From TrEMBL:
Keyword Acetylation attached: no
Species in which this protein is naturally found: Novosphingobium mangrovi (ex Huang et al. 2023)
Lineage of the species this protein comes from: Bacteria, Pseudomonadati, Pseudomonadota, Alphaproteobacteria, Sphingomonadales
Keyword match Cell membrane: no
Domain of life: Bacteria
Domain Sulfatase N-terminal: 181-411
Entry keyword set: Membrane, Transmembrane, Transmembrane helix
Transmembrane segments: 20-42, 54-75, 95-116, 128-147
Protein name: Sulfatase-like hydrolase/transferase
Length: 434
Protein backbone atom coordinates (compact mmCIF):
# COMPACT_ATOMS: atom_id res chain seq x y z
CA UNK A 1 0.00 0.00 0.00
CA UNK A 2 1.38 3.36 -1.08
CA UNK A 3 -0.30 5.48 1.61
CA UNK A 4 1.33 8.95 1.88
CA UNK A 5 1.60 8.97 5.69
CA UNK A 6 4.02 11.90 5.85
CA UNK A 7 1.77 14.00 3.61
CA UNK A 8 -1.23 13.18 5.80
CA UNK A 9 0.71 14.11 8.94
CA UNK A 10 2.29 17.37 7.79
CA UNK A 11 -0.05 18.68 5.10
CA UNK A 12 -3.46 17.56 6.38
CA UNK A 13 -3.32 17.02 10.15
CA UNK A 14 -0.75 19.63 11.16
CA UNK A 15 -2.50 22.62 9.47
CA UNK A 16 -5.77 21.57 11.12
CA UNK A 17 -4.24 20.94 14.53
CA UNK A 18 -6.13 23.92 16.02
CA UNK A 19 -9.43 22.40 14.93
CA UNK A 20 -8.51 18.96 16.24
CA UNK A 21 -7.39 20.26 19.64
CA UNK A 22 -10.75 21.98 20.03
CA UNK A 23 -12.67 18.77 19.41
CA UNK A 24 -12.53 17.95 23.12
CA UNK A 25 -13.33 21.49 24.27
CA UNK A 26 -15.70 23.38 21.98
CA UNK A 27 -15.70 21.62 18.63
CA UNK A 28 -17.30 24.17 16.33
CA UNK A 29 -18.18 22.38 13.05
CA UNK A 30 -15.37 23.09 10.56
CA UNK A 31 -16.00 20.67 7.69
CA UNK A 32 -15.54 23.45 5.14
CA UNK A 33 -12.12 24.19 6.64
CA UNK A 34 -11.02 20.57 6.20
CA UNK A 35 -12.20 20.57 2.60
CA UNK A 36 -10.58 23.88 1.65
CA UNK A 37 -7.32 23.29 3.51
CA UNK A 38 -7.09 19.78 2.02
CA UNK A 39 -7.53 21.08 -1.51
CA UNK A 40 -4.98 23.83 -0.90
CA UNK A 41 -2.54 21.30 0.55
CA UNK A 42 -2.88 19.00 -2.48
CA UNK A 43 -2.05 21.94 -4.72
CA UNK A 44 0.70 23.66 -2.75
CA UNK A 45 2.49 20.48 -1.71
CA UNK A 46 3.22 19.69 -5.37
CA UNK A 47 4.77 23.02 -6.26
CA UNK A 48 8.36 22.56 -7.50
CA UNK A 49 9.84 25.24 -5.19
CA UNK A 50 10.57 24.37 -1.56
CA UNK A 51 10.31 28.01 -0.42
CA UNK A 52 6.87 28.30 -1.99
CA UNK A 53 5.79 25.08 -0.26
CA UNK A 54 7.05 26.40 3.10
CA UNK A 55 5.20 29.71 2.73
CA UNK A 56 2.12 27.87 1.48
CA UNK A 57 2.12 25.47 4.45
CA UNK A 58 2.32 28.39 6.88
CA UNK A 59 -0.44 30.13 4.95
CA UNK A 60 -2.74 27.12 5.32
CA UNK A 61 -2.26 27.14 9.11
CA UNK A 62 -3.09 30.85 9.23
CA UNK A 63 -6.07 30.31 6.90
CA UNK A 64 -7.53 27.55 9.07
CA UNK A 65 -6.96 29.53 12.28
CA UNK A 66 -8.60 32.66 10.88
CA UNK A 67 -11.58 30.62 9.69
CA UNK A 68 -11.95 29.11 13.17
CA UNK A 69 -11.76 32.49 14.91
CA UNK A 70 -14.24 33.99 12.44
CA UNK A 71 -16.64 31.11 13.05
CA UNK A 72 -16.21 31.43 16.82
CA UNK A 73 -16.99 35.16 16.87
CA UNK A 74 -19.47 35.17 13.95
CA UNK A 75 -17.23 37.31 11.74
CA UNK A 76 -17.73 36.96 7.97
CA UNK A 77 -14.37 35.49 6.81
CA UNK A 78 -14.03 37.83 3.82
CA UNK A 79 -14.86 40.98 5.80
CA UNK A 80 -11.25 42.12 6.10
CA UNK A 81 -12.12 45.51 7.59
CA UNK A 82 -13.98 43.78 10.43
CA UNK A 83 -11.13 41.32 10.95
CA UNK A 84 -8.75 44.29 11.15
CA UNK A 85 -11.03 46.01 13.67
CA UNK A 86 -11.22 42.80 15.69
CA UNK A 87 -7.41 42.65 15.85
CA UNK A 88 -7.25 46.31 16.93
CA UNK A 89 -9.94 46.20 19.63
CA UNK A 90 -9.77 42.70 21.13
CA UNK A 91 -7.07 41.66 23.62
CA UNK A 92 -6.92 37.84 23.43
CA UNK A 93 -3.62 37.65 25.33
CA UNK A 94 -5.46 38.86 28.44
CA UNK A 95 -6.86 35.34 28.67
CA UNK A 96 -4.48 32.47 29.54
CA UNK A 97 -6.59 30.22 27.29
CA UNK A 98 -6.14 32.48 24.28
CA UNK A 99 -2.48 33.13 25.10
CA UNK A 100 -1.82 29.38 25.13
CA UNK A 101 -3.75 29.04 21.87
CA UNK A 102 -1.52 31.73 20.34
CA UNK A 103 1.61 29.82 21.35
CA UNK A 104 0.19 26.63 19.85
CA UNK A 105 -0.67 28.37 16.57
CA UNK A 106 2.80 29.94 16.33
CA UNK A 107 4.46 26.59 16.99
CA UNK A 108 2.13 25.06 14.43
CA UNK A 109 3.19 27.58 11.79
CA UNK A 110 6.89 27.00 12.42
CA UNK A 111 6.47 23.22 12.37
CA UNK A 112 4.52 23.39 9.12
CA UNK A 113 7.18 25.56 7.49
CA UNK A 114 9.91 23.12 8.53
CA UNK A 115 8.34 19.70 7.99
CA UNK A 116 5.78 20.12 5.19
CA UNK A 117 8.20 21.24 2.41
CA UNK A 118 10.33 18.17 3.10
CA UNK A 119 7.52 15.74 2.34
CA UNK A 120 8.10 14.00 -1.02
CA UNK A 121 5.63 14.86 -3.75
CA UNK A 122 3.24 12.14 -4.89
CA UNK A 123 4.49 9.75 -7.53
CA UNK A 124 1.28 7.90 -8.38
CA UNK A 125 -2.47 8.34 -8.73
CA UNK A 126 -3.14 6.05 -5.77
CA UNK A 127 -1.52 8.54 -3.39
CA UNK A 128 -3.89 11.28 -4.57
CA UNK A 129 -6.76 8.86 -4.03
CA UNK A 130 -5.62 8.06 -0.47
CA UNK A 131 -5.26 11.79 0.26
CA UNK A 132 -8.78 12.52 -1.02
CA UNK A 133 -10.21 9.67 1.07
CA UNK A 134 -8.39 10.99 4.16
CA UNK A 135 -9.79 14.49 3.61
CA UNK A 136 -13.29 13.03 3.39
CA UNK A 137 -12.69 10.94 6.50
CA UNK A 138 -11.63 13.93 8.58
CA UNK A 139 -14.55 15.99 7.31
CA UNK A 140 -16.84 13.31 8.73
CA UNK A 141 -14.83 12.98 11.94
CA UNK A 142 -15.10 16.72 12.49
CA UNK A 143 -18.85 16.54 12.03
CA UNK A 144 -19.05 13.73 14.60
CA UNK A 145 -16.84 15.39 17.23
CA UNK A 146 -18.50 18.77 16.78
CA UNK A 147 -22.04 17.39 16.98
CA UNK A 148 -22.61 18.54 20.57
CA UNK A 149 -21.30 22.01 19.79
CA UNK A 150 -24.11 22.58 17.32
CA UNK A 151 -26.46 22.83 20.27
CA UNK A 152 -24.48 25.62 21.93
CA UNK A 153 -23.01 27.32 18.85
CA UNK A 154 -26.34 27.64 17.08
CA UNK A 155 -26.06 29.08 13.60
CA UNK A 156 -28.93 31.09 12.14
CA UNK A 157 -31.97 29.07 11.06
CA UNK A 158 -33.95 29.44 7.89
CA UNK A 159 -36.79 31.92 7.60
CA UNK A 160 -39.44 29.31 8.37
CA UNK A 161 -38.65 29.29 12.10
CA UNK A 162 -40.73 32.04 13.77
CA UNK A 163 -39.01 34.63 15.95
CA UNK A 164 -40.59 34.75 19.40
CA UNK A 165 -38.22 37.30 20.89
CA UNK A 166 -38.57 38.55 24.43
CA UNK A 167 -39.65 41.95 23.10
CA UNK A 168 -42.30 40.24 20.97
CA UNK A 169 -43.51 38.08 23.87
CA UNK A 170 -44.06 41.02 26.22
CA UNK A 171 -45.53 43.19 23.48
CA UNK A 172 -42.94 45.92 23.64
CA UNK A 173 -44.26 48.86 21.64
CA UNK A 174 -44.75 52.62 21.93
CA UNK A 175 -47.74 53.77 23.94
CA UNK A 176 -48.78 57.16 22.59
CA UNK A 177 -51.60 57.76 25.08
CA UNK A 178 -49.65 56.81 28.24
CA UNK A 179 -45.99 56.86 27.23
CA UNK A 180 -43.58 55.20 29.61
CA UNK A 181 -39.86 55.26 28.98
CA UNK A 182 -38.67 51.89 27.70
CA UNK A 183 -35.29 50.40 28.59
CA UNK A 184 -34.26 47.24 26.76
CA UNK A 185 -31.14 45.59 28.19
CA UNK A 186 -29.44 42.74 26.32
CA UNK A 187 -27.03 41.05 28.72
CA UNK A 188 -23.91 39.41 27.31
CA UNK A 189 -23.84 35.63 27.96
CA UNK A 190 -26.91 35.58 30.20
CA UNK A 191 -27.97 31.95 29.90
CA UNK A 192 -30.82 30.06 31.50
CA UNK A 193 -29.26 27.81 34.20
CA UNK A 194 -30.27 24.16 34.15
CA UNK A 195 -28.63 22.97 37.40
CA UNK A 196 -29.70 23.68 41.01
CA UNK A 197 -26.72 25.90 41.96
CA UNK A 198 -27.08 28.09 38.90
CA UNK A 199 -30.86 28.29 39.22
CA UNK A 200 -30.60 29.48 42.83
CA UNK A 201 -28.03 32.17 41.97
CA UNK A 202 -30.07 33.28 38.97
CA UNK A 203 -33.30 33.55 40.99
CA UNK A 204 -31.60 35.60 43.72
CA UNK A 205 -30.32 38.07 41.12
CA UNK A 206 -33.21 38.30 38.68
CA UNK A 207 -36.36 37.71 40.76
CA UNK A 208 -36.14 40.29 43.54
CA UNK A 209 -39.22 40.72 45.78
CA UNK A 210 -38.72 44.49 46.08
CA UNK A 211 -39.31 44.92 42.35
CA UNK A 212 -42.96 44.03 42.86
CA UNK A 213 -43.45 47.16 44.95
CA UNK A 214 -43.07 49.19 41.78
CA UNK A 215 -43.46 46.84 38.80
CA UNK A 216 -45.51 44.00 37.42
CA UNK A 217 -42.77 41.38 37.08
CA UNK A 218 -42.79 38.49 34.60
CA UNK A 219 -40.21 35.96 33.42
CA UNK A 220 -39.77 33.76 30.39
CA UNK A 221 -37.41 32.33 27.80
CA UNK A 222 -36.80 32.99 24.14
CA UNK A 223 -35.04 30.88 21.55
CA UNK A 224 -31.66 32.15 20.41
CA UNK A 225 -29.42 31.55 17.40
CA UNK A 226 -26.03 32.96 16.53
CA UNK A 227 -23.98 35.60 18.33
CA UNK A 228 -24.59 38.90 20.08
CA UNK A 229 -25.39 40.90 16.93
CA UNK A 230 -27.92 38.23 16.00
CA UNK A 231 -29.45 38.64 19.45
CA UNK A 232 -29.68 42.39 18.88
CA UNK A 233 -31.57 41.92 15.62
CA UNK A 234 -33.75 39.25 17.22
CA UNK A 235 -34.90 41.64 19.95
CA UNK A 236 -34.98 44.92 18.03
CA UNK A 237 -36.21 43.73 14.62
CA UNK A 238 -37.81 40.30 15.30
CA UNK A 239 -35.70 38.58 12.64
CA UNK A 240 -33.08 35.86 12.30
CA UNK A 241 -30.39 37.65 10.32
CA UNK A 242 -26.77 38.73 10.17
CA UNK A 243 -26.30 42.47 10.00
CA UNK A 244 -23.78 42.16 7.14
CA UNK A 245 -26.38 40.65 4.80
CA UNK A 246 -29.64 42.10 6.12
CA UNK A 247 -31.53 44.57 3.92
CA UNK A 248 -32.00 47.44 6.36
CA UNK A 249 -34.10 49.31 3.81
CA UNK A 250 -36.83 46.78 4.60
CA UNK A 251 -36.31 46.85 8.35
CA UNK A 252 -39.28 47.25 10.70
CA UNK A 253 -37.48 47.61 14.02
CA UNK A 254 -38.40 48.84 17.49
CA UNK A 255 -36.11 51.91 17.49
CA UNK A 256 -37.73 53.13 14.27
CA UNK A 257 -41.22 52.51 15.59
CA UNK A 258 -40.53 54.34 18.86
CA UNK A 259 -38.84 57.20 17.01
CA UNK A 260 -41.82 57.59 14.68
CA UNK A 261 -44.13 57.61 17.71
CA UNK A 262 -42.29 60.60 19.17
CA UNK A 263 -39.80 58.86 21.45
CA UNK A 264 -36.12 59.76 21.55
CA UNK A 265 -34.09 56.63 20.73
CA UNK A 266 -30.62 55.87 22.11
CA UNK A 267 -28.25 52.90 21.90
CA UNK A 268 -25.54 52.35 24.50
CA UNK A 269 -22.65 49.89 24.50
CA UNK A 270 -19.40 49.77 26.48
CA UNK A 271 -17.26 48.68 23.52
CA UNK A 272 -16.05 50.51 20.42
CA UNK A 273 -18.54 51.79 17.87
CA UNK A 274 -16.61 50.31 14.93
CA UNK A 275 -16.69 46.71 16.14
CA UNK A 276 -19.30 44.81 14.15
CA UNK A 277 -19.99 48.12 12.37
CA UNK A 278 -22.64 49.14 14.90
CA UNK A 279 -22.00 52.81 14.13
CA UNK A 280 -23.14 52.08 10.56
CA UNK A 281 -26.24 49.97 10.97
CA UNK A 282 -27.65 51.21 14.31
CA UNK A 283 -28.93 54.43 12.66
CA UNK A 284 -30.53 52.34 9.91
CA UNK A 285 -32.85 50.66 12.41
CA UNK A 286 -33.92 53.93 14.00
CA UNK A 287 -31.39 55.02 16.63
CA UNK A 288 -31.02 58.79 16.79
CA UNK A 289 -28.22 58.74 19.37
CA UNK A 290 -25.40 56.26 19.99
CA UNK A 291 -23.17 56.21 23.06
CA UNK A 292 -20.13 53.92 22.96
CA UNK A 293 -17.03 53.34 25.09
CA UNK A 294 -15.20 56.61 24.39
CA UNK A 295 -18.15 58.78 25.36
CA UNK A 296 -19.00 56.64 28.40
CA UNK A 297 -15.41 56.90 29.64
CA UNK A 298 -15.45 60.68 29.14
CA UNK A 299 -18.70 60.80 31.12
CA UNK A 300 -17.01 59.16 34.10
CA UNK A 301 -17.32 55.42 33.59
CA UNK A 302 -14.31 53.40 34.69
CA UNK A 303 -12.30 51.33 32.23
CA UNK A 304 -12.73 47.57 32.65
CA UNK A 305 -10.02 45.22 31.33
CA UNK A 306 -10.42 41.84 29.69
CA UNK A 307 -10.38 40.19 26.29
CA UNK A 308 -12.99 42.78 25.29
CA UNK A 309 -11.87 45.90 27.20
CA UNK A 310 -14.21 48.84 27.50
CA UNK A 311 -16.28 50.91 29.88
CA UNK A 312 -17.48 49.17 33.03
CA UNK A 313 -21.08 47.99 32.79
CA UNK A 314 -21.58 48.68 36.50
CA UNK A 315 -21.15 52.42 35.87
CA UNK A 316 -23.81 52.68 33.14
CA UNK A 317 -27.10 52.41 35.12
CA UNK A 318 -26.63 55.73 37.00
CA UNK A 319 -26.05 57.43 33.64
CA UNK A 320 -29.28 55.92 32.32
CA UNK A 321 -31.22 57.14 35.36
CA UNK A 322 -29.80 60.62 34.88
CA UNK A 323 -30.66 60.60 31.18
CA UNK A 324 -34.25 59.47 31.74
CA UNK A 325 -34.78 61.87 34.65
CA UNK A 326 -33.70 64.87 32.56
CA UNK A 327 -35.54 63.90 29.37
CA UNK A 328 -38.22 66.23 27.99
CA UNK A 329 -39.84 63.51 25.85
CA UNK A 330 -40.39 59.74 26.25
CA UNK A 331 -37.26 57.65 25.77
CA UNK A 332 -36.42 54.31 24.18
CA UNK A 333 -32.98 53.20 25.37
CA UNK A 334 -31.20 50.05 24.24
CA UNK A 335 -28.24 49.00 26.39
CA UNK A 336 -25.99 46.13 25.34
CA UNK A 337 -23.66 45.02 28.14
CA UNK A 338 -20.05 43.90 27.64
CA UNK A 339 -18.05 42.77 30.65
CA UNK A 340 -19.48 39.24 30.89
CA UNK A 341 -18.12 38.34 27.45
CA UNK A 342 -16.28 35.04 27.86
CA UNK A 343 -13.58 34.16 28.68
CA UNK A 344 -13.66 36.24 31.86
CA UNK A 345 -10.19 36.88 33.24
CA UNK A 346 -9.19 37.00 36.89
CA UNK A 347 -8.69 40.69 37.52
CA UNK A 348 -9.06 42.99 40.51
CA UNK A 349 -10.44 45.84 38.43
CA UNK A 350 -13.25 43.56 37.27
CA UNK A 351 -13.74 42.14 40.75
CA UNK A 352 -13.07 38.62 39.49
CA UNK A 353 -9.78 37.99 41.29
CA UNK A 354 -11.70 36.44 44.18
CA UNK A 355 -15.09 34.85 43.54
CA UNK A 356 -17.28 34.82 46.64
CA UNK A 357 -20.70 33.56 45.52
CA UNK A 358 -22.07 30.02 45.68
CA UNK A 359 -20.70 27.20 47.82
CA UNK A 360 -16.97 26.67 48.35
CA UNK A 361 -17.10 23.38 46.43
CA UNK A 362 -18.94 24.96 43.50
CA UNK A 363 -16.44 27.83 43.37
CA UNK A 364 -13.56 25.35 43.36
CA UNK A 365 -15.07 23.08 40.70
CA UNK A 366 -16.26 25.82 38.31
CA UNK A 367 -14.05 28.94 38.57
CA UNK A 368 -15.06 30.34 35.16
CA UNK A 369 -18.74 29.85 35.97
CA UNK A 370 -18.20 31.53 39.31
CA UNK A 371 -16.63 34.59 37.68
CA UNK A 372 -19.49 34.76 35.18
CA UNK A 373 -22.20 34.54 37.84
CA UNK A 374 -20.35 37.06 40.01
CA UNK A 375 -20.27 39.65 37.24
CA UNK A 376 -23.93 38.99 36.45
CA UNK A 377 -24.65 39.46 40.17
CA UNK A 378 -22.91 42.85 40.19
CA UNK A 379 -24.80 43.84 37.06
CA UNK A 380 -28.13 42.69 38.53
CA UNK A 381 -27.47 44.77 41.66
CA UNK A 382 -26.83 47.88 39.54
CA UNK A 383 -29.91 47.28 37.40
CA UNK A 384 -31.98 46.79 40.56
CA UNK A 385 -30.75 50.13 41.94
CA UNK A 386 -31.68 51.71 38.62
CA UNK A 387 -35.15 50.17 38.70
CA UNK A 388 -35.80 51.27 42.28
CA UNK A 389 -34.23 54.72 42.03
CA UNK A 390 -36.59 57.46 43.23
CA UNK A 391 -35.25 59.63 40.39
CA UNK A 392 -36.37 57.18 37.71
CA UNK A 393 -39.59 58.23 35.94
CA UNK A 394 -42.07 55.49 34.89
CA UNK A 395 -39.95 53.10 32.84
CA UNK A 396 -40.66 49.63 31.48
CA UNK A 397 -37.50 47.50 31.70
CA UNK A 398 -36.89 44.36 29.64
CA UNK A 399 -33.75 42.34 30.43
CA UNK A 400 -32.79 39.44 28.14
CA UNK A 401 -29.73 37.34 27.28
CA UNK A 402 -28.14 37.39 23.85
CA UNK A 403 -26.99 33.75 23.84
CA UNK A 404 -25.96 31.12 26.36
CA UNK A 405 -22.43 31.37 27.75
CA UNK A 406 -20.01 29.96 25.12
CA UNK A 407 -17.92 28.02 27.64
CA UNK A 408 -14.75 26.28 26.43
CA UNK A 409 -15.64 23.11 28.28
CA UNK A 410 -18.06 20.49 26.99
CA UNK A 411 -18.83 19.34 30.54
CA UNK A 412 -20.27 22.77 31.37
CA UNK A 413 -22.61 23.04 28.40
CA UNK A 414 -25.31 20.99 30.14
CA UNK A 415 -25.44 23.55 32.93
CA UNK A 416 -27.45 25.90 30.71
CA UNK A 417 -30.48 25.57 28.47
CA UNK A 418 -28.97 24.73 25.08
CA UNK A 419 -31.56 26.54 22.97
CA UNK A 420 -33.06 29.38 25.01
CA UNK A 421 -32.07 32.46 26.96
CA UNK A 422 -34.04 34.01 29.83
CA UNK A 423 -35.86 37.31 29.98
CA UNK A 424 -37.18 39.42 32.87
CA UNK A 425 -39.78 42.13 32.31
CA UNK A 426 -40.47 44.93 34.78
CA UNK A 427 -43.65 46.70 33.69
CA UNK A 428 -43.90 50.01 35.54
CA UNK A 429 -47.02 50.66 37.56
CA UNK A 430 -47.50 54.40 37.34
CA UNK A 431 -49.35 54.57 40.67
CA UNK A 432 -46.40 52.89 42.41
CA UNK A 433 -43.74 55.38 41.31
CA UNK A 434 -42.10 57.36 44.07
Amino acid sequence: MDIPFRWLAFWLLLPNLTVMLMWGILGIPMQASWMLSGMLALTISHLPWRAARAIGAAGIVVFVTVLYVCQLFSIPPLNFSLIRQFLLDVRPLQSPVYALAGVVVLANILAAMYFAPRVPRFTGKSQFLYAAVAIGLFINLDGAFAFDARKSHRTLPDDEIPVHSAAWQVGLSPDIKHPHNVLLIVVESLGAPAMPEGKALFAADWDRPEWRERYDVSHGKTEYFGSTTNGTLRELCTIWAHYSSFDFAKADCLPGRFRDAGYETTAMHSFTSEMFERNTWYPKIGFEHMIFADELLRAGARSCPGVFPGACDADIPPMIVQKLARAKKPQFVYWLTLNTHLPIVENGALGTDHCSIGTAQWRSDYPMLCRLFQLHHVLADKISRLAMSPDLPPTDILIVGDHKPPLFDRTLNGRFDQGHVPWIYLKARTDAQS
